[in-house]
Amino acid sequence: MFAQRWRWPAAAIAFLLMALAPSGGGAQPWVSADAAVLVDADSGQVLYDRAGGEWRDPASTTKMMTALLIIESGRLDEMVEVSSRAASAPGSAMGLRRGDRLLLVDLLKGILICSGNDAAVAAAEHLAGSEEHFVELMNQRARELRLLATHYRNPHGLTASGHKTTARDLAALARYCLRHPLFRHVVSLREAVVEVCDRRGTPRQIALSTTNRLLGMGYDVDGVKTGTTYAAGRCLVASLWRGDRRLVAVVLHSNDRWGDALRLFDYGCEEFWMETLLHGGEIAGSLPLANGLKPAVAVVTADGVRVARRGDVSPENPFSVVIQTTQGIVAPVAKGQEVGWLVARDQDGCVLKVRLLAAETVGRDTLLGRLLLYLLPAVKALARRGVG
Description:
It is a single chain. The protein is of the alpha+beta class. It contains eleven helices and 17 strands. Strand 8 and strand 9 form a beta hairpin. Helix 3 (63-73) runs antiparallel to helix 5 (104-112), helix 5 runs antiparallel to helix 6 and helix 6 crosses helix 7.
């Protein structure tokens, strides 16, 4: 009663604060969320951060990891039988019943479109044998993706002790998930229909509607995931694709998650411009090589290095670029082998990292290797003369 009674006054106060907030001239956007981040999806560069490193309850944004494991399993065409435990999962549901059979890819749709807790449990049990074992896989994958502030206790996001993440980790997870075409497609859908067979083999259809109100409202938003619990509040991980760039916004415990996300997107698009430092595959420099036929190995960037620059920052104030490696590189090195990182840092301390790959194959320094190194140019020259 109290929450309903004060809903409109609170909304009016929020609107007044937004109207009075300074705009233009590089001012940061006003957001109502307790924690929020805005990142450039390509580089991971953080453009806005409010308590982005604080532990928060993630609610159903948890389902991004559940969906990722489903996609990476490669078993999307398998038929899943829904257990009584899955069918009775509390909270939001896609409408599954005990004994229902449907494709795993359709469970994926139920998880991401209408945020079905029943679908999340059914998929977890099918892929890992039990919900508990699936949660272990979720935490293992989080560690592999270096989501070091994230810990899962279930596959759906209902409040549980120790089930925590941060806005920054959610943004990093969304960036990774959005690399998968199927993930991008499903989170962009406003509606879908899936077919289910009950225990008697009788088919029926389940209509799914998105929980993301930003989809189809005339914006460039194409995902990603909502979440709502009492502990987490209203949460949103949103993706915007405009021109040749993608932005990811995360707002947690928000009074106006739709408005918060749109204001962050406007800020990112209006205040920042993109600069290409290096194209993918471009020579970035060289790294010292121990025990090699050459003292150094040339390196190329695995991906293009594009950075977001503030509109009020002079182009003459470039990013500093440093080539790093965790330890010395020892020959032999194969072309395409990952050997280090290119780290770009601006005057505000914003950092992005891009993998560096060996641009050439360099063998170990042996007597035979040296002979081949010196004789090969002569052999090639003789061969060219013979052809001529």
